[in-house]
């Protein structure tokens, strides 16, 4: 009986831990709240409840409109491709278009700053 209990416990533990995906993007993975958008030649905007959710090779923009897409991360830059939306919807998130490149100015486990040709975005880990 004791062997059956140990075997059952072992199987449950293996099945729970085997379903989780490991982080491949380091500090970039997670849910980031957009705290400030600084556009060139315009006053800074403080958005209300806008989020970038990043995991594996997927990105989801949540808030004003929910948008889904993919991204690639290499060195100090990321490249977003939002296929489920349009320019107007992604503009609220500090993007010019549904395809956008950002340079990573700084990133830690708590804060991140991204730069594009037209805006500087500041985030906090949520």
From TrEMBL:
A Pfam family recorded for this sequence: Lipocalin_8
Top-level taxon of the source organism: Bacteria
Keywords of the record: Signal
Keyword Signal: yes
Residue intervals of the Lipocalin-like domain: 16-126
InterPro entries for this protein: Lipocalin-like
Cited Gene3D superfamilies: 2.40.128.280
Transmembrane segments: none
Signal peptide span: 1-22
Official protein name in the record: Lipocalin-like domain-containing protein
Naturally occurring in which organism (per UniProt): Bacteroides luti
Lineage, top ranks: Bacteria, Pseudomonadati, Bacteroidota, Bacteroidia, Bacteroidales
């Amino acid at each position: 009986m004791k062997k059956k209990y140990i075997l059952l416990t072992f199987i449950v533990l293996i099945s729970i831990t085997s379903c989780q995906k490991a982080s491949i993007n380091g500090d970039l993975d997670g849910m980031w709240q957009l705290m400030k958008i600084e556009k060139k030649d315009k006053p800074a905007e403080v958005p209300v409840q806008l989020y970038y959710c990043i995991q594996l090779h997927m990105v989801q923009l949540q808030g004003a409109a929910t948008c889904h897409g993919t991204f690639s991360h290499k060195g100090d830059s990321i490249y977003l491709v939002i296929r489920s939306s349009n320019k107007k919807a992604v503009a609220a998130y500090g993007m010019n278009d549904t395809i956008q490149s950002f340079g990573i100015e700084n990133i830690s486990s708590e804060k991140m700053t991204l730069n594009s040709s037209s805006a500087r975005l500041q985030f906090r880990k949520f």
